[in-house]
């Protein structure tokens, strides 16, 4: 992955571009009253948040390159806007954008693929102090699930 400040062009389809634009526009529409914690994006005010979403919208619409951190912001805000009824547009998304849930999830999954704008490396640029460290190189899982898994291995299941 390139540095966090280097501009990266991403080949988006016209429909992906429209989906992202619609999602980002909802922060001035259906999601505008939501209590979104913009501070987690490193911002101090709602005005900064509005400027950020407008800048990202314009860049996506104009097929302009963005930094990897900005691509992470684009994906994160798109995910939140579409999926969250708590802090995003949620159930109103389909009504106000015209994107059905089935089309939206297909587009979102395509964007989440590493060749597009997803991946943990970009997430680390957005949330550098987030995440947990894995012990012994294995994922952290529920102890009951681990016991069942280990029990199945030793009992020959």
The number of helical elements comes to 7
DSSP, total strands: 2
Biggest β-sheet: strands ordered side by side in the sheet: 1-2
Question: What's the Cα radius of gyration?
Answer: 18 Å
Distance between the termini: 41 Å
The helix content, as a percent range, equals 40-55%
**Fraction in beta strands:** under 5%
- Tell me, briefly, the overall form: globular
Model description:
The protein is mainly alpha-helical and 157 residues long. The protein has one domain (7-132). The protein is 52% helix and 3% strand. The protein contains 7 helices and 2 strands; from the N terminus they run E-H-H-E-H-H-H-H-H. It has helices at residues 14-25, 46-61, 68-83, 93-97, 101-112, 120-126, 143-155, and strands spanning 7-8, 66-67. The chain has a two-stranded antiparallel sheet. Helix 1 (14-25) runs antiparallel to helix 2, helix 1 (14-25) crosses helix 3 (68-83) and helix 3 (68-83) runs antiparallel to helix 5 (101-112). It is globular and about 55 Å long. It starts with 6 loop residues before the first strand and ends with a helix. The model has no long low-confidence stretch (mean pLDDT 85).
Question: Quick gist of this model?
Answer:
The protein is mainly α and 157 residues long. The chain has 7 helices and 2 strands. The chain has a two-stranded antiparallel sheet.
Topology:
Elements (H helix, E strand, L loop, with lengths): L6 E2 L5 H12 L20 H16 L4 E2 H16 L9 H5 L3 H12 L7 H7 L16 H13 L2
Antiparallel strand pairs: 1-2
């Amino acid at each position: 992955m390139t540095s966090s400040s280097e501009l990266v062009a991403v080949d988006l389809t016209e429909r992906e571009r429209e989906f992202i634009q619609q999602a980002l526009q909802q922060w001035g529409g259906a999601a505008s009253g939501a209590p979104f914690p913009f501070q987690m994006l490193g911002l101090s005010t709602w005005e900064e948040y509005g400027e950020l979403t407008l800048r990202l919208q314009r860049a996506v619409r104009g097929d302009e390159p963005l930094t990897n951190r900005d691509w992470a912001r684009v994906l994160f805000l798109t995910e939140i806007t579409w999926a969250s009824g708590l802090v995003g547009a949620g159930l109103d998304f389909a009504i106000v954008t015209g994107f059905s849930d089935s089309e939206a999830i297909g587009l979102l999954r395509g964007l989440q693929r590493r060749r597009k704008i997803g991946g943990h490396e970009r997430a680390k640029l957005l949330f550098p102090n987030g995440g947990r460290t894995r012990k012994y190189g294995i994922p952290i899982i529920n102890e009951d699930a681990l016991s069942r898994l280990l029990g199945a291995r030793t009992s020959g299941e």
